[in-house]
Design goal:
Strand 6 and strand 7 form a beta hairpin. 20% of the residues lie in helices and 29% in strands. It has eleven helices and 29 strands. It folds into three domains: 4-178 and 335-463, 3-Layer(bba) Sandwich (FAD/NAD(P)-binding domain), CATH 3.50.50; 200-328, no CATH class; 479-633, Galactose-binding domain-like (Jelly Rolls, Sandwich). It is of the alpha+beta class. It has helices at residues 30-41, 83-95, 101-113, 165-170, 181-184, 288-308, 342-346, 413-419, 422-442, 446-463, 557-562; strands at residues 4-6, 17-26, 46-49, 118-121, 124-131, 136-143, 148-159, 174-176, 200-201, 204-208, 237-242, 245-249, 262-266, 276-277, 317-322, 327-328, 332-334, 354-358, 362-365, 378-381, 387-390, 402-404, 484-487, 514-515, 524-543, 572-581, 584-591, 598-619, 626-633. The protein starts with a strand and ends with a strand. The strands form eight sheets. Strands 1, 2, 3, 4, 5, 6, 7 and 22 form an eight-stranded mixed sheet that branches. Strands 23, 24, 25, 26, 27, 28 and 29 form a seven-stranded antiparallel sheet that branches.
Amino acid sequence: MKNFVHEIPAPSKNPAVRKHYDVVIVGGGMSGVCAAIASARHGAKTAIIQDRSVYGGNASSETRMHISGASCHWGKKNAAETGILMELQLENKYLNDNFNYSIWDGVLWSNVKKCENLDSYMNTTMDVVDSDGTEIKSIQCYQMNTEIRYEFTADIYIDATGNGTLGYFAGAEYYIGREERAKYGEKDAPEVPDGETMGNTIYFCARDTGKPVKFVKPSWAYTFDESFFKYRYHGDIVVYHDADDVVVLRPDEDYEDHADQLVEKYDVESGYWWIELGGDWDDIIKQAEDIRYELYKCVYGVWDHIKNGGDHGAENYELVWVGNVAGSRESRRLMGDYVLTEQDILSNNKREDGVAYGGWPMDEHVAGGFYAKGNIPSKVRSFDGLYNIPYGCYCSKTIRNMMIVGRIISASKLAMGSTRVMATCAVGGQAAGTAAAMAVQKKCSPTEFGKSYIRELRQELLKDDCFILGCKNEDEADLARKATVYATSEKAGYEAAKVINGVSRNVGDTINQWRSDGIREGGEVLTLKWEEAAWIRQIRLTFDPNLSEERCISVSRAFIDKEPKGVDKELVKDYTVSVVSEGKVVWSQKTENNYQRLNILDLPEAVKGDEVRICVEATNGDADARIFEVRVYSRPI
């Protein structure tokens, strides 16, 4: 059988340090981080290998792209991704209301480092994969700052590299570019296939100094006139559509009368996604460094145009940061047990093997990027609603012990335009990491696990605060499902019993939340009562951070100005949980200054009770107490 071994020989005096794990994740972007934490939390001995000195990938301080997802930046209500991603974002919001990327880096790094069962290998590059084309035997990595070479073996590997590098080295089936229409029957696919992809982008940041600042263009930077910027709005402006004409105003002009027509605000403080190149180059991976250098010349040329090429409202601005790591959108896609297509997305599929969801438009950037002069930079195919991503999209079709997460999951070119955004990648990463850990425990491959245990996986993901369309809590171990629920007050439509209806967010027009009628002195009490007492060891509470709001870190002033400041006001802040037996409190715990959605309370030891009382004393600013779900277990889960 053919072996796929790509190798840079290790020096004879530097033998590899051998390590074995249940699960090894290669890649530390948002999907890799969420996969690693999920795997470790579910009991698998896990390693995450990251070739950078920070986690987060395109969302890190190296690239500074905001995390987009199904909510389409306030476009779709109640669509924000929850689970591990939201946990990280809410912690960042609590610590870092000024959008400091160094603090965000620390949030990601610290959550990886403090996670039990998870070992972190940063500045570590995978350069050898030993595979026979059907199974990965081992991988080798070099940690440059320690000069240590590692050899890793694992029961299951997860490719979170962004380029599908692990799968490519292992001999996995993959695809690059656009498929022909006949392949999947997609109405918006081209008649013939081609290798076009979306390109890479380098961001910049600028600041207003309060006084005029000059900019001298470096000799190596390009010069652009206004003809290069058709459909590429730039400078300090507001853009809206008036009938068939695009009208541009300065932010200090009166545009309030056009608010219903407002398209976007643009400012000179952050760079532009349309400074994009590489999608029509011969090989977007192997030419990545050449593309990066070309992007530098473009970024400084664009800034020169903004500063010196006319009135763009930038007289007082100076350039303070230009990214050194280009943000990548697309390269290889690894083929899986299922290929997500345009039809899956447009039909809002609620497949029963769905384990994650998306909602971002099928967004296809022009392959030529900035050099596609005069062309609209992106074709956006919007749609209503959300869609499920099937489990098979995360399982390699050809490598039995490998899973796939991030923008490289098994999807057509059109579908990938929606699934590629980082929040969608992150919830898929949590799903795959959870599945990998459970598959190791069941001693089966990822594909075998999906055939036999998909219901268990979906229920586990719901328990961990993930959302799957059409899936409700059916956990037989959850004692709360058999309780009677009542409260000291409730608003019409927000009855107390909804905390055990199996859905932990509002869906469409359906309310799945208890909401008190104000908070009286002493607090509002939600009570779960059983006819017979039970042993109680863990209580899970799911609060409301407003899933129609954004909470992603960004360099864009339009985002920063629009996002609410501080901890989400709807979140419960101070509360006390008590276990009661025959009217007597047998265990109680008070929590103050909460800023998280999912709160897991593990009792030191099991206590027997016939009631659980949750007394909400304060929120982070809202007038009412809000709780989506309560779960109760006899043992820690």
